[in-house]
């Protein structure tokens, strides 16, 4: 039983935690909050839960404190292939549909497990993908796994599990994908483990969709047993942002108990093999002959990308990029060009930006692209609109078109580092490593203080076996962040705070 005065204080703390983490501690859950504080008190430096409660109410709650509280206030109960019907639906219906579409475009498949706990769910998906896709080298697969509980993330990254995580799975499956390290403990094989990227992400405070943290253009988002803990306002906001993070016809999957909590006019409830999921509705059809340049765009590869590097770029005006070989110039045949619904005077940048920021990517594209009007895509004078169109295509999964339109933005404004960074992000999703590196180096040459470009380049160098260069870029980021307020965003951060970026960089350097 909680004394009346302490109950009032617990309610006050519950409101603060709801604002920071989204978790809704209604009256009936106050005992859960108390038990969580009792367990967290020692780690937070307090002898008992009452003194810890008082401290939490009188001291601004830092991100480090949130991470400690998350370990004691969130439930991470999971196991491999939890919910057999769901994984059957993913393997036999959802993934094949995504693969069919990806085969016609760029063989990109992107999945996000939001609230991944100790990793059994994203690793289960990785195993399914390895089975369904066969030769993974022919695909560009992203499985992003995020959580607010850093203790769970550390366990997930290790990839070591006990028998309890395998309940319901056959013995042969465990033998095939795991190596026994000691009695009752099994280590996931590296071929599966390397498919998943784990990262801290707070669905309430951290931005998404975002190119910076790779939460954009997802084909599948799984967020199971998370939404039920959020208050209604936070839940609506998170669902809205999940919708914006999905490509058209992408899937949002929650637990059966949470299905009724998902309310969005463009998320259609679908039953697949007895399990409920939500699919992002399709807008008016965008015919590719209106979108692509006059000549059909080939698959992107390193040789088709030419970007001046920081060592030979010379004067700023010499920065150049040819996205595809054979892009038509202004003298190309007028009859072959795609056409725009309006000129830039008809669709102002402010209106285009509003549509983009609201996640209305298909509407932005459909209001811009049309067969009937006479204004050519090459006549857009505002590079910002071209860049928005590129981002909209990237966020709907049309990466080849995104590259094309980004190239046009760069032609209009060659010295804008943001456009080169955008290009690098898209090329990275396409698996064009050398082109992405060159574009990032160009962005940094044009603006040596461009933190997201340093961050992306550091991660690319790390991924491709260049640890010294990676650490150098990470250390540069820490120096650049010194000039920014801890709780404020930095340029091109898409809402991420300087403090959050500093935490990410420090954790990476500690691990390396």
How many H/I helices?
20
Q: How much helix is in the residues?
A: 40-55%
Placed side by side, the strands forming the largest sheet appear as: 6-2-1-7-8-10-9
- Quote the CATH topology of the largest domain: Rossmann fold
Query: Would you tell me the overall average pLDDT?
Result: 80
Return the CATH architecture of the largest domain: 3-Layer(aba) Sandwich
What this model shows, in words?
With 512 residues, this protein is α/β, with parallel strands linked by helices. It has 3 domains: 70 residues, no CATH class; 197 residues, Rossmann fold; 160 residues, Tetratricopeptide repeat domain (Serine Threonine Protein Phosphatase 5, Tetratricopeptide repeat, Alpha Horseshoe), CATH 1.25.40. It contains 20 helices and 14 strands. The strands form 4 sheets. Strands 6-2-1-7-8-10-9 form a 7-stranded mixed β-sheet. Strands 3-5-4 form a 3-stranded antiparallel β-sheet. Helix 2 packs across helix 4, helix 15 runs antiparallel to helix 16 and helix 17 packs antiparallel against helix 18. The longest helix has 21 residues. The chain is globular.
What characteristics describe this protein?
20 helices; 512 residues; 14 strands; globular; alpha/beta; Rossmann fold; seven-stranded mixed beta sheet
């Amino acid at each position: 039983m909680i004394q009346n005065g302490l109950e009032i204080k617990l309610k006050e703390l519950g409101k603060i935690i709801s604002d920071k983490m989204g978790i809704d501690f209604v009256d009936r859950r106050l005992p859960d909050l108390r038990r969580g504080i009792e367990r967290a008190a020692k780690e937070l430096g307090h002898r008992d839960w009452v003194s810890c409660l008082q401290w939490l109410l009188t001291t601004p709650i830092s991100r480090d404190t949130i991470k400690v509280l998350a370990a004691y206030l969130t439930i991470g109960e999971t196991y491999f292939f939890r919910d057999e019907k769901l994984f059957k639906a993913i393997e036999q219906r959802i993934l094949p549909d995504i693969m069919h579409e990806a085969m016609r475009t760029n063989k990109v498949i992107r999945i996000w497990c939001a609230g991944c706990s100790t990793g059994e769910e994203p690793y289960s998906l990785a195993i399914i993908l390895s089975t369904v896709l066969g030769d993974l080298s022919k695909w560009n697969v992203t499985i992003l796994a995020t959580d607010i509980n850093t203790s769970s993330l550390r366990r997930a990254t290790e990839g070591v599990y006990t028998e309890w995580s395998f309940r319901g799975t056959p013995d042969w499956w465990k033998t095939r994908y795991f190596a026994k390290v000691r009695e009752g403990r099994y280590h996931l094989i590296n071929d599966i483990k390397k498919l998943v990227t784990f990262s801290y992400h707070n669905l309430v405070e951290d931005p998404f969709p975002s190119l910076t943290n790779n939460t954009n253009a997802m084909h599948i988002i799984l967020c199971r047993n998370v939404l039920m803990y959020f208050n209604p306002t936070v839940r609506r906001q998170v669902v809205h942002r999940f919708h914006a993070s999905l490509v058209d016809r992408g899937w949002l999957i929650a637990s059966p108990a949470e299905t009724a909590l998902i309310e969005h006019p463009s998320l259609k409830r679908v039953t697949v093999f007895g399990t409920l999921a939500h699919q992002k509705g399709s807008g008016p059809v965008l015919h590719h002959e209106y979108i692509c340049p006059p000549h059909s765009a080939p698959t992107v590869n390193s040789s088709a990308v030419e970007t001046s590097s920081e060592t030979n770029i010379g004067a700023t005006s010499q920065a150049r990029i040819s996205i595809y070989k054979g892009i038509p110039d202004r003298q190309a045949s007028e009859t072959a060009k795609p056409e725009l619904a309006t000129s830039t005077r008809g669709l102002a940048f402010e209106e285009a930006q509003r549509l983009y920021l609201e996640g209305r990517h298909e509407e932005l594209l459909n209001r811009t692209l049309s067969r009937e009007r006479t204004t050519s895509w090459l006549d857009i004078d505002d590079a910002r609109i071209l860049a928005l169109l590129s981002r909209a295509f990237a966020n709907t999964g049309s990466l080849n078109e995104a590259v094309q339109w980004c190239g046009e933005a760069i032609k209009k404004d060659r010295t804008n580092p943001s456009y080169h960074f955008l290009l690098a992000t898209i090329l990275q999703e396409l698996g064009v490593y050398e082109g992405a590196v060159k574009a990032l180096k160009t962005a940094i040459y044009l603006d040596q203080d461009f933190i997201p470009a340093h961050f992306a380049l550091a991660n690319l160098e790390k991924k491709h076996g260049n640890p010294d260069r990676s650490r150098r870029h990470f250390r540069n980021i820490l120096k650049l962040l010194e000039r920014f307020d801890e709780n404020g965003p930095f340029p091109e951060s898409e809402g991420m705070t300087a403090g959050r970026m500093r935490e990410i960089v420090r954790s990476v350097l500690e691990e390396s």
